[in-house]
Amino acid sequence: xxxxxLKQNQFFEALKENYGKDALPSLSAIKELLGYKSKNSVAQYxxxxxxxxxxxxxxxxxxxxQDFLGARLFSSKVRAGFxxxxxxxxxxxxxxxxxxxxxxxxxxxxxxxxxSMVDLGIFEGDYVSIKKSSYAQDKDIVLAxxxxxxxxxxxxxxxxxxxxxxxxxxxxxxxxxxxxVIFGVALGIMRKF
Amino acid sequence: xxxxxLKQNQFFEALKENYGKDALPSLSAIKELLGYKSKNSVAQYxxxxxxxxxxxxxxxxxxxxQDFLGARLFSSKVRAGFxxxxxxxxxxxxxxxxxxxxxxxxxxxxxxxxxSMVDLGIFEGDYVSIKKSSYAQDKDIVLAxxxxxxxxxxxxxxxxxxxxxxxxxxxxxxxxxxxxVIFGVALGIMRKF
DNA sequence: GACTTTTATGTACAATCGTACATAATAATA
DNA sequence: TATTATTATGTACGATTGTACATAAAAGTC
Lengths: 193, 193
Hints:
The structure is a homodimer.
Chain A: H1 6-19, H2 27-34, H3 39-51, E1 55-58, E2 61-64, E3 73-74, H4 82-86, H5 96-99, E4 107-111, E5 127-132, E6 141-146, E7 149-158, E8 161-165, E9 180-192
Antiparallel strand pairs in A: 1-2, 4-5, 5-9, 6-7, 6-9, 7-8
Chain A binds a DNA duplex through residues 5, 7-8, 26-28, 36-41, 43-46, 48.
């Protein structure tokens, strides 16, 4: 694991064990936890880990680098086995919340009902991240209110004609009779098994 | 939203926007970020949010409580219009990261290649949350190494026979010749449009 | 109108922070 | 063996921390 001595590795494992993805507390607090008598012991380990980019600063707090924690993107190129895959070099860390902008105030979640979008792999019960918007572009997947009812469909806009298109041959296109109000555009979906 | 004034809510939204699930920095740092001239402005907002359990302490660092992170679930019962739906009472806040356990150390992400699972709505490019495990139950979706190659399939275990089942009629079942090593069980998927 | 709460700024201060520097025993290495 | 790196403890210090207290304009409430 990246040229750490035994003690350094023990120290790092203790950090992982106790703080995980959370911000690391003060040197003194870690000193107390690990039973050192001087916070400088901790500071010296910190310097080692910092130099090796195992811990890094963010908003003036220290964190264990994401490369050493959590949901790393598993590279399909890796063939050498699981262990090596987990301890390999720099991997991307992905947050679904971040990718689908869940913590923005203009984004909310819609739960799919029905099977009108199955051909696009959108199944009943799926969670859809919806970004609030009154406008959409051709082929965007939108949450819309057409003639009074909510629905998730592909938005079509062609030759000055506007309609909603399901992704299921068994359903017809929806041409708005009175009104078509777009509530938001889908950013992505999440499905829990 | 839990009896916050307009300003308090703006303050809180700014925190969410800037720090999300990370630890909050010092009062001074937030003061600078939000353009206040006294860190006490921030301290007073902090007191309000603390009292309402919107932010909480952990390892002597402050975090936004999990209950307030993530996006709100859009209730399909709401028919009265978009505005009211957005400003309603207590809503479920959903975090995809939390649901699919992305911040656990034994969970990683695998990117789907190929179309062997399309019938289950798992498409090429989808992100799959995989919980590390050597065992699986019948009908779990697993990431496995069969005869040397990685693949995402449905794990089948019936009458002492084990095989991997694709979700696409064009593909055959995979019966392990030499070895079948399960790497993990899929918890769910994310797709970004 | 009278009263209260909210919002914003400012000053003061003890406690704690991280860093720097020093010392020395131990472990690793050449 | 000689030399270097690691590990552990300690002291010192300026910077920063969060809290407390005070003031006052603005907004909200009765």
